[in-house]
Specification:
The chain is of the alpha/beta class and 229 residues long. It contains ten helices and nine strands. The protein has a seven-stranded parallel beta sheet. A two-stranded antiparallel sheet has the order 6-7. A hairpin with an 8-residue loop joins strand 6 and strand 7 (166-167).
Length: 229
């Protein structure tokens, strides 16, 4: 078992939880403007109820240097009060060559995340620099939760290996299995598509799945949990 899976399993068992809390500070929806303080209150209230926290980097980057400082403070606070909880950097980075290598260094060496989300549209070249961090989690964006996801992810393709035709999101899951030689790969599949989630689970029976979309996006919690187990 990889170091990432061990850390994730321990966090789930310790807090008896499969819950990942997103930390997406939208000032328009917050009761206070202090992002670090807002996140601190959430973490303090949930630190024994979750297996992971997932800051979405877009919200911090949109606030400039102050936002990045708030992210730094948030990470430090999580490490101090919930050291066993997994910390996921939600960035969905996707590029090639030394750009992808730089993204991987930023997420793992600079920010110190235990795992990060990655966009696989560029193929294995875009994912490999993250996979090379064999002790960290690489969470492949497979089936997104947004209403327009099917426009790109549902078309049926003929895989280049000559196997049976399948929707593109299924092919992403198949490739993720192949890339998972270090046991550090997971998948993103939205709770808004529980039937597709069930199919992905059939293709990847042992792989962790991050299931966003519960809450404002009206994802189906119970069916998604059942489909993902």
């Amino acid at each position: 078992m990889s170091a990432f899976l061990e850390r994730l399993d321990t966090a789930c068992e310790t807090n008896e939880s499969l819950l990942c809390v997103g930390l997406d500070p939208d000032l328009a929806q917050m009761p206070i403007s202090d992002v670090a303080a807002f996140n601190k209150a959430i973490v303090d209230a949930t630190r024994d109820l979750v297996c992971a926290y997932k800051p979405n980097l877009a919200f911090y980057e949109a606030l400039g240097l102050e936002g990045l400082r708030a992210l730094e403070q948030t990470i430090q606070h999580i490490r101090n009060v919930a050291p066993g909880v997994v910390l996921i950097g939600d960035a969905k980075r996707g590029d090639i060559g030394n750009t992808a290598e730089a993204y991987a260094r930023a997420m793992f060496d600079v920010w110190g995340f235990d795992a990060t989300t990655v966009n696989p549209y560029g193929g294995q070249d875009a994912v490999q620099p993250f996979l090379d961090y064999r002790d960290r989690g690489v969470i492949i964006w497979c089936r997104s939760s947004n209403p327009g996801a099917g426009e790109i992810q549902n078309p049926v393709i003929v895989p280049p290996d000559g196997t049976e035709s399948r929707p593109l999101y299924e092919w992403v899951a198949v490739r993720a299995n192949i890339w998972n030689d270090a046991g550090n790969v997971a998948l993103v599949v939205g709770a808004t598509y529980p039937d597709e989630l069930e199919r992905v689970r059939e293709l990847c029976p042992e792989m962790p799945i991050l299931i966003p979309g519960v809450g404002a996006q009206e994802g189906v919690l119970e069916k998604s949990v059942l489909s993902g187990t």
